[in-house]
Structures are given as structure tokens and as C-alpha cells.
Specification:
Chain A is mostly helical. Helices cover 73% and strands 1% of the residues of chain A. Chain A has a two-stranded antiparallel ribbon with strand order 1-2. In chain A, 45% of the residues are buried. Chain B has 371 residues and is an all-alpha fold. In chain B, 74% of the residues lie in helices and 0% in strands. The chains are: A mainly alpha (317), B mainly alpha (371).
Chain lengths: 317, 371
């Protein structure tokens, strides 16, 4: 469409004699006005979406005076300072010296990374297998058929965390899983499993059955066909499900706050515990927030395609 | 729904081909594993109840026994049913996992809900019947939180409207669409807890926050975003919208891109102007996607907690409280486990009914609209 419009504009002078200039002018100016409106709105919303992030990053380089006077633009109305980053031990001059805050931060960061990746991997494995089975075969466990099993899995999505939180606390106490990484990985796996199954079911439905039939005729077993034929084709869907799961697990706060205390704390818990105190320095809080959101911001920029794919799977027919 | 099936050649011979000895061995394996699991559970129950002297220090061995039982069940299935068993192996791990992680806690939760368990009291737990339930019925804070949830769910419609507008913008012929899409998606990537600080505690801060400064310039003399009930509620809604609008927008954008191009072209040729072609063509075609997006969004909205917990803790006067944040405080600050669990179970039943009703209503409505 964009190219056709360009072509029209290029041709316009040549055929001008055959057209009525006034109406052309009107429609052109109308079109330009429309474009201006669209871009204005787009830029406005870009501002709304990105300003808080910009604000947080710049605030992490401010000192008290810049905060109270509402300075906004580095090098223009204030000089960036490493103070916020120094306070969490991540500034250039403190990065090689020992810092208890940095150690704490790195521990939480590592916890968050291990748990979100571990839970997402487990969920993708369990969920992909289940989704494949549900799409391809007809099951009958007692009175349960495919439709019921699917519903059983997807209905977990409705379950609010509060319902499971306390029972998990009690259960984990008995199982000695409280405040352990593996305990939280199990909870997170449960949390993202319905989403993974939802995405993968859509993915497997898009694969023609004939491919597997051909493999079966060639002597593959059911599992052989799945591993050799289906898995490689559905890899993009799995990556999408995995990345979306990592995002959800990384940001999870509720379970982490209730089920961990000292060993298995995650980043959101650390951030929340810092915001609780009123007199906290803005610059260190901003530095901490920036460091906490940075990994996902990078994921968002470079892997946006997969996130969109994961979000839209199954919702759009 | 699931009718596609791989007609495997070995299908037909699958069940006839297995020697009876193997089938019997499989049955024995499953029976023995079940007995072993039951024995370990019983052993530990007796120990925990103080009936026997020996036992494990915690219930971890029971967990291992359950895992071993799961493996034995899978192997037994293959031994008994051959190909059918191999197929069951696809879905069995996920089922065993979900059952273990949902069913046991739910049973435990139902038990806790009927006790007066408070972690702060020394007496430990004891059964107190429906006392929690009656306390819940008379708890103004809970009903207040539930009423707030109603407002928050209604706010989803507003988010939907904005998201639809943004999706239309992104679907227009624009340059740098990829940049705008990444920028618009960005808030969704951020943890609500971090957003709580970034937006709620610094951007909207009364003294130095840029949002407050802007509001002062616009003529609002004391821009306290979290002081009066309705303004605080709107502030929470705004933050929540900021995080979740990208999600709805992405779904709607995918829907718009899947619309048949010919229809849109035909609308343009017909000379229908933008507004009319939107309401008469685009909007009706987008109804299925819209309803999916809204329902998913409502399901997530009913879990809203993180932002409220970190920014207002439900204040002022409970006006921003959600049911989840209310229960969170019940656990965290008052250690009132029994009562909190009762509230959670009650809330769960309410939202299960609500969502069932929503699904039923929307599918009926869709049938009527699309004919």
C-alpha cells in the first residue's frame, strides 16, 4: 500500500491535466492530516510507555539536589553521578571491591535467573508433551477424555495464587522445601504450565498429521516421530512459550514473598523490601530497579518476536 | 475438538501383540508400586500422629516415593498396553505433576480453612467449623475488597478501548512499526513490583515526582495521587493499565492483521469513511478476538495484587484493596492463616463461578451475533 501511494504521487504530475486539482488537493491534505495525527498519537504513547523507564534510568545517576529540583535531562540540567550505582556496588569504581549489597543483589539475581529458567524448562517439557498427546491421540482415563484433560490443565489458569499460597506454605514446611529453589521452581512450573499447554496445542495443531504418518510408515515409533519430526518443526513455538514463561516467572512476586525468606529470595522480593522503607534514597532505589528490569528489557527488545508469538498463539484463529 | 489421530500401522496389532506374561508383570509392577507408596505414606502418618517411634524427619521421602510411583505407573502402562501406554506417557507426567501440586494443596487448604490457625498464637491449630465462614460474612474489609475488584474488572474495558486504538495505530501504514511495537510492549516486560516503585513511588511522588509536577502545572494544587479513595483507585488502575495494555494490544493487533485484506479494500472502495467502516466492518470482525482478549485479561485482573501491595498496601482506608492483597496482609501481618485461607477459598469459588458465567454468556452472545 505504501509503495502504491508513492507510485501515485510520482505519477501525479504527469496526469495532472486529466484530474480535477481541487479534490486531489483536498484528499491529499486530508491524508497528510491523518498521517500527522497517527504519528502524533504514536509518539505520545511511546512517550507514555518509555518515560517511566527513562526516568528510572536517569534517576539512578542523580544526587539529592537533582531529585528535589526535578532535573530530567543528563548533561543538560544535571551532571550524572555514579552514587546510586555505587550504593549497590555496581559502579565502575566499586565493581571490583567487595560490597555486601552487590553480593546480596547478585544472589537474588542468580536465584531469579535459575528459578525462572528452571521452571520454564520444566513447564515447556511437561507442557509440550501433554499438548502433543492431547492434540494427536484420543485418551480415555476412566471417564476422562481429551476435552476434560485439556480443561483440567487450562482451568489452572483461573486459580489465583492466594488460594494455593498457604497450603503450599504448610505442605512445603512438611516436605522441607520451604525457602528452597526447587520448591519455588515447582510452584512456578504450575503457574506457567497452562500457558505453555495453550501455546503448544496451537503450535501442534498447525503441523500436518501426514508428516508423522510418513515417519511412522518409515518405521519410526510414536516417540521417534515426535522427537525427530515434530520437535524440530515446533521449536519456534517452544522458544516462544519458554520466553513468555521466563518473563512471567521473573516478575512473580506473590509466591516468592510468602515461600522464601533468606536463601531463595528473588529480585522482586528484594526490590519490594527496599521500597517498604520510606526514607530510601531515590538514586539507589532507581539503580536497583534499573538492574532488576534490565534483563527483561533486553529480552523485550531482542526477542519481541517470540513474545508476540507466544501471546497470540491460540487467541487468533 | 481433538479428532485428528495418527493412524499408526502398529495400532491395530498393538494390544493383541503383548504376551500375557508381560501384561501380568506390568500389572504386578503397578500394584507393588502403589502398595509401597501407600505403606510409606501410612508409615509416616503413624509417625507424625505419634503412634509409632520410628519415622522420617520430614515428608520428603513420601515425595520421592510419589515420584518413583509415577515412574512405575508409566513403565507399567507401557508393559500392559504397549502402544497405548506409550501414548499415555505423553500426557501422564503433566497430569501427575498437576494433580500432586494442585490436589494435595487444595485438600490441605480446605482443612486449614476450617481451623482457627494463627501462626502468632501458641495453641496451634484446632478445628473451629464454620466460624471462619461467618467471620468472613461479617468482614467489611473483605466485601470492600470485593467491591474494588468489581471496579478493577470494569477498568479492563477501558484498557481494551485504549488497546484497540493503539492496535489500529500500529496496523496503519506507518514507518518504524517494529520500533513502535517494541516500545509499546516494553511496560509488559517489567515486574509489577519494580513498576510499583518506578511509577507509584517516584513518578507520582507528591513532592518531586514529574507526574505531580506536571499536575501542578495543569492547575491541580495538591497532586496527591494516593490520598483520597477515588484518586488512589484511579492511580492504581492507571498503573495496572500501563502494564497490561500492551498485552491486550498485541492480541488485537494480531487479530487485525489476520483480517482478510479484501474486505478492508472493499470498504475503502465503497467510500465508507474511517469511522463507519470501523464500526460496521472491523469491529464486528474483531469480536471473537476481542472477547478472548477481554476474558484472558479479566482472569489475570482477578489476581491483581503486586502493585497494590507495593504501592498502597490497600490504603487509604482500604479503597485500593484487592482481595489478593487483603489476604496477603492477613497472612503477612496478622499471621491469620486459617481465616486467610477461608477467604481465599471463598474468593476462588466466586471467581470460578464468575468466569464460568462469563464464558457461558459470551459464547451465547457470540452465537446470537454471528448467527
Amino acid at each position: 500500500m505504501a509503495t502504491s501511494m508513492k507510485a501515485q504521487n510520482a505519477m501525479a504530475p504527469r496526469y495532472q491535466a486529466y484530474r480535477e486539482p481541487p479534490s486531489e488537493l483536498v484528499s491529499n491534505s486530508k491524508r497528510i492530516a491523518g498521517k500527522v495525527a497517527i504519528y502524533t498519537l504514536l509518539i505520545l504513547w511511546t512517550f507514555i510507555a518509555l518515560f517511566p523507564i527513562y526516568w528510572t534510568i536517569t534517576t539512578s545517576f542523580k544526587v539529592a539536589v537533582d531529585v528535589t529540583q526535578g532535573h530530567m535531562i543528563p548533561w543538560y540540567d544535571y551532571t550524572p553521578d555514579w552514587r546510586g550505582w555505587r550504593s549497590i556496588g555496581l559502579s565502575p569504581d566499586t565493581i571490583f571491591s567487595t560490597s555486601t549489597v552487590r553480593e546480596e543483589f547478585m544472589k537474588r539475581f542468580l536465584n531469579s535467573a535459575i528459578m525462572s529458567i528452571g521452571a520454564s524448562l520444566l513447564a515447556v517439557i511437561l507442557g509440550s508433551l501433554a499438548a502433543y498427546g492431547l492434540v494427536r491421540f484420543d485418551y480415555k482415563f476412566a471417564i476422562w477424555r481429551n476435552r476434560d484433560i485439556s480443561f483440567f490443565f487450562l482451568s489452572q489458569l483461573i486459580l489465583p495464587p492466594v488460594v494455593l499460597a498457604m497450603p503450599f506454605l504448610v505442605l512445603y514446611k512438611e516436605l522441607a522445601l520451604l525457602d528452597t529453589r526447587i520448591g519455588l521452581i515447582v510452584v512456578y512450573t504450575l503457574m506457567v504450565l497452562p500457558i505453555v499447554i495453550w501455546i503448544m496445542r496451537d503450535q501442534f495443531r498447525g503441523i500436518p498429521v501426514e508428516l508423522e504418518q510418513a515417519a511412522l510408515v518409515d518405521g519410526c515409533s510414536t516417540w521417534g516421530a515426535f522427537m525427530r519430526i515434530v520437535l524440530p518443526i515446533s521449536l519456534p513455538g517452544m522458544v516462544a512459550a519458554f520466553i513468555l514463561s521466563v518473563v512471567l516467572c521473573w516478575n512473580e512476586y506473590f509466591f516468592a514473598a510468602l515461600l522464601t525468606s533468606t536463601n531463595a529470595n528473588t529480585l522482586p522480593v528484594m526490590v519490594a523490601s527496599q521500597t517498604g522503607s520510606q526514607g530510601i534514597n531515590w538514586w539507589s532505589m532507581a539503580a536497583l530497579s534499573t538492574a532488576a528490569i534490565a534483563p527483561l528489557a533486553i529480552v523485550g527488545i531482542f526477542l519481541e518476536r517470540y513474545i508476540v508469538k507466544g501471546l497470540t498463539a491460540g487467541a487468533v484463529k | 475438538m481433538q479428532t485428528s489421530q495418527v493412524a499408526a500401522p502398529q495400532d491395530l496389532i498393538a494390544t493383541h501383540d503383548i504376551p500375557p506374561a508381560r501384561r501380568a508383570a506390568g500389572k504386578w509392577l503397578i500394584t507393588l508400586a502403589t502398595l509401597a507408596l501407600a505403606a510409606i505414606v501410612l508409615f509416616q502418618i503413624l509417625y507424625a500422629a505419634g503412634q509409632t517411634e520410628t519415622g522420617f524427619a520430614n515428608w520428603r521421602p513420601v515425595l520421592y516415593a510419589y515420584l518413583a510411583w509415577g515412574v512405575a505407573l508409566g513403565v507399567g502402562q507401557v508393559m500392559i498396553r504397549g502402544e497405548g501406554g506409550k501414548r499415555a506417557l505423553f500426557v501422564l507426567p503433566a497430569i501427575l505433576f498437576t494433580v500432586a501440586v494442585v490436589i494435595f494443596p487444595t485438600i490441605a487448604g480446605l482443612y486449614i480453612a476450617f481451623t482457627d490457625w494463627n501462626l502468632a498464637s501458641f495453641e496451634g491449630r484446632s478445628f473451629n467449623g464454620l466460624a471462619n465462614f461467618w467471620a468472613l460474612m461479617n468482614d467489611g474489609y473483605f466485601w470492600n475488597a470485593l467491591r474494588n475488584m468489581g471496579f478493577y474488572v470494569l477498568a479492563v474495558l477501558l484498557q481494551y478501548a485504549i488497546a484497540f486504538g493503539l492496535a489500529l495505530l500500529l496496523n496503519a501504514e506507518i514507518r518504524a512499526r517494529k520500533f513502535f511495537r517494541v516500545a509499546f510492549l516494553m511496560p509488559f516486560m517489567l515486574s509489577p513490583v519494580a513498576v510499583g516503585w518506578m511509577v507509584g513511588k517516584s513518578l507520582m511522588e507528591y513532592r518531586f515526582g514529574p507526574a505531580a509536577t506536571l499536575a501542578r502545572h495543569l492547575g491541580w494544587e495538591s497532586p496527591a495521587f494516593f490520598a483520597s479513595p477515588w484518586i488512589a483507585r484511579f492511580s492504581i488502575m492507571a498503573m495496572d493499565a500501563w502494564v497490561w495494555i500492551p498485552f491486550v494490544m498485541i492480541l488485537l493487533l494480531a487479530g487485525l492483521q489476520a483480517l482478510p485484506k479484501e474486505i478492508m479494500e472493499a470498504a475503502k472502495v465503497d467510500g465508507a469513511n474511517g469511522w463507519r467502516s470501523f464500526w460496521q466492518i472491523v469491529f464486528p470482525l474483531m469480536l471473537p478476538v476481542s472477547i478472548t482478549a477481554i476474558i484472558i485479561r479479566v482472569i489475570f485482573q482477578l489476581k491483581l495484587a503486586d502493585i497494590v501491595i507495593t504501592v498502597t498496601s490497600g490504603g487509604p482506608g482500604g479503597s485500593t484493596d484487592t482481595v489478593s492483597s487483603f489476604i496477603f496482609r492477613e497472612y503477612r501481618d496478622r499471621s491469620n492463616v486459617g481465616y486467610g485461607t477461608m477467604v481465599a477459598e471463598f474468593y476462588f469459588i466466586l471467581i470460578a463461578l464468575f468466569i464460568a458465567l462469563l464464558l457461558w454468556g459470551s459464547s451465547r452472545w457470540m452465537k446470537r451475533v454471528t448467527g
